[in-house]
Design brief:
Layout: E1 2-9, E2 14-21, H1 30-33, E3 35-42, E4 45-48, E5 56-59, H2 61-76, H3 92-100, H4 105-122, E6 137-141, E7 144-148, E8 153-157, H5 158-174, H6 182-192, H7 199-207, H8 211-217, H9 220-223, H10 235-242, H11 249-260, H12 269-285, H13 290-307, H14 316-322, E9 326-330, E10 339-342, E11 350-354, H15 363-379, E12 388-390, H16 397-411, H17 414-422, H18 427-438, H19 442-450, H20 460-467
Helix pairs in contact: 2-5, 2-6, 3-4, 10-11, 12-13, 13-16, 15-16, 17-18, 17-19
Length: 476
Amino acid sequence: MVEDLITFGDRSGLNVALRWKERTGEPRNPANATLGAMRLGIGMRDVWYGENEQGLEWTWIDLLEFLGEAWPFLEWEEGYPFGLKPMNPSLIRIAAEDRWQGLPEERVEIEEEEIYGFEETHDLARSFKGARVPSVWLLREGSGVWIASREQSILCPLDKTLDILSSLGNAIASRLDGLSDGRSQVAVAAWKTRRSHSGQRLAEIATRLPAEVLRGLGSLDEIFELPPGGFEYTELLAAARMTECRFCGTSLIAVLDSIRSVPHISQRTELDRLSREAESLLRESGKEKPYDQGYFLAGWFSEVLKSMGLDYPFEPSEILDRMGILVRRIEIPEPNVDAVACWGPRHGPAIIVNKRGVHSQQEKGQRSTLAHEICHLLIDRTGALPLVEVLNGSAPPNVEARAKAFAAELLLPRNLAYELIVNAPDPEAAVDEVGSTYGVSKEIIAWQVRNARLSLSLPTNVYNLLRGFVLDPSKF
């Protein structure tokens, strides 16, 4: 017997077409009940399609079992193990193997186990038992989720994607109604309780912090301001995740306390208006590379500021004041944190500058830090960073690259930097003057001149001078 086709999702993201094929005349068991042909696609490209137009034939209780176990990781886990930043989730093992070069064997074994666990909870292909099919990765990023195969990756709304998977899981589970065998009952029970994990367990998944670290913080409901009887991402939970446990104990508590001290500011009409305009313009621009997006947004925002009566050199503190954004400068006993910014439903929007930060302890570093956070406020609050950012934490690399380019271009446009340095009779003296006038570091000046692209090459004396100002001259 062949039943009608059922579909989930559409060609804008994850999409599934499933046709059940129960073998008549055979005892009804979990394999027979969930036998079907599935076509699964990412956007316009099918990834699972089998050998005929109906799709990949399989017993889909395997997928239900996978979803029941992996659900809390798909819903709450962001980022990659131990700070890896592959361009695509399917490249995580390659990135890990590069990292393992030269590491002690015992350390590699520990990390390899963590990579295996990540693969087992984020690659839908791991649901297949006894067959090799193309990987389909799902990895949360803020309010979105990356859906990726080896050939492509697209960012889709998280809620919509989870709804598609819920509908698919429910359809499979319904095929097991009336079956009393152990496998069916365990699979259905795991599916129905996929969101019933303890707050402690979900906090471990969402923050990547070890259980002993979380226990040392005290009551998780109080520390992370979790709602009574529930679990959700809060500003504090997101900030803890972004530390990647590179600093714990008093430093982590100080970061959380800095957010907790910030009130919620409900009146932010101007910020929201600018954000909507920035998001719309960026979509229409067609720009894909993060630094191109950052330069584009900085150019647009500079014109907005000029219409407000401001002009170069822009003062980030004044811009933020005009936008109604609270700025605080405090001491956080962790030099790796330059700033903590929050804009969620309980705290902010606000930027907390760490006066002990490696870069933010100096005035020029503070200006760059504030300009960096302005980009996040404008473009990332509805996407990759819906709640908070810990500067130098584990924000997505593309998002950070965009904000870095934005900050440099806002403070010192590339074309202006090129003109002031390359055409100066004394480039070295000009670097000092530009740094003082525009409040930027010598490294920012060097990169802005280099990236101006007004010439195929820089004069040798200018190139050698600027190359000496960058942290990694081999990349200049």
